[in-house]
């Protein structure tokens, strides 16, 4: 069996591992620690499997962190990204659970932020529901996020006013997923003001 003969610290949290005085691999420090590699230890099959398992776990978390660095994602969206990066099912599930426990991945927060952003860009409740469901969010989370928004009629009035009212405003509102009641109220209000 090959024996670990050196563990040398490298750049940014990486460790160069030597087996039988020959370079083997450079691994993240966390992988070396979690796999329990030590100088003088034989790298038998169980230890090699532990290194492989910890390396896959580390890579799943690294991909997740890169995906979440700039914006929130839903659990389903993150799982899709991990699957596209060929992260195995067990590692995907573990990464998602770890990020949920840490509060980094939160579907409720994602739903609220996404709904607020879409409403701010002039979308109606139907379009917002569709978008949130497309991201794999449960119906309860979708309904809670939509319920937290300003009333749809008030948002429709703002969009209709910007569109100039009348038939043109009604078409804009319909394209943006506003309900019939909101369209009728908003388009009528703007027409009366004009």
In brief:
64% of the residues lie in helices and 10% in strands.
Describe the structure.
With 194 residues, the chain is mainly alpha-helical. Helices cover 64% and strands 10% of the residues. It has ten helices and three strands; from the N terminus they run βββαααααααααα. It has helices spanning 29-35, 45-68, 75-84, 89-102, 107-120, 125-134, 139-147, 152-163, 166-175, 180-193; strands at 4-9, 14-19, 22-28. A three-stranded antiparallel beta sheet has the order 1-2-3. The chain is rod-shaped. The N and C termini lie far apart (86 Å).
Properties at a glance:
disordered C terminus; 194 residues; single chain; rod-shaped; mainly alpha; 3-stranded antiparallel β-sheet
Tell the overall outline.
rod-shaped
Major beta sheet, specifics?
Answer: 3 strands, antiparallel
Oligomeric description of these chains: single chain
Average pLDDT figure: 92
**Strand neighbour order, sheet with most strands:** 1-2-3
Euclidean distance between termini CA atoms = 86 Å
Computed structural class: mainly alpha
* N-to-C series of helices and strands: EEEHHHHHHHHHH
Low-pLDDT parts are: 190-194
Q: What does the radius of gyration come to?
A: 26 Å
Strand content: 5-15%
Number of strands: 3
Portion in helices: 55-70%
Number of helices: 10
Topology, pairings included?
Blueprint (H helix, E strand, L loop, with lengths): L3 E6 L4 E6 L2 E7 H7 L9 H24 L6 H10 L4 H14 L4 H14 L4 H10 L4 H9 L4 H12 L2 H10 L4 H14 L1
Antiparallel strand pairs: 1-2, 2-3
């Amino acid at each position: 069996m090959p024996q670990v003969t050196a563990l040398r610290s490298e750049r940014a949290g990486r460790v160069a591992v030597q087996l039988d005085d020959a370079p083997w691999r450079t691994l993240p420090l966390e992988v070396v620690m979690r796999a329990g590699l030590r100088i003088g230890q034989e790298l038998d099959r169980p230890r090699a499997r532990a290194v492989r398992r910890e390396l896959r776990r580390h890579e799943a978390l690294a991909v997740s962190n890169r995906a979440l660095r700039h914006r929130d994602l839903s659990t389903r969206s993150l799982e899709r990204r991990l699957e596209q990066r060929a992260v195995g099912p067990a590692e995907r599930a573990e990464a998602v659970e770890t990020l949920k426990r840490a509060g980094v991945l939160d579907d409720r927060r994602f739903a609220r932020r996404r709904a607020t952003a879409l409403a701010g860009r002039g979308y109606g409740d139907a379009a917002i529901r569709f978008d949130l469901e497309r991201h794999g969010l449960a119906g309860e989370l979708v309904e809670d996020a939509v319920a937290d928004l300003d009333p749809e009629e008030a948002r429709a009035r703002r969009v209709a006013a910007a569109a100039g009212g009348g038939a043109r405003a009604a078409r804009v509102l319909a394209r943006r997923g506003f309900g019939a009641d909101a369209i009728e109220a908003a388009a009528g209000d703007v027409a009366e003001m004009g």
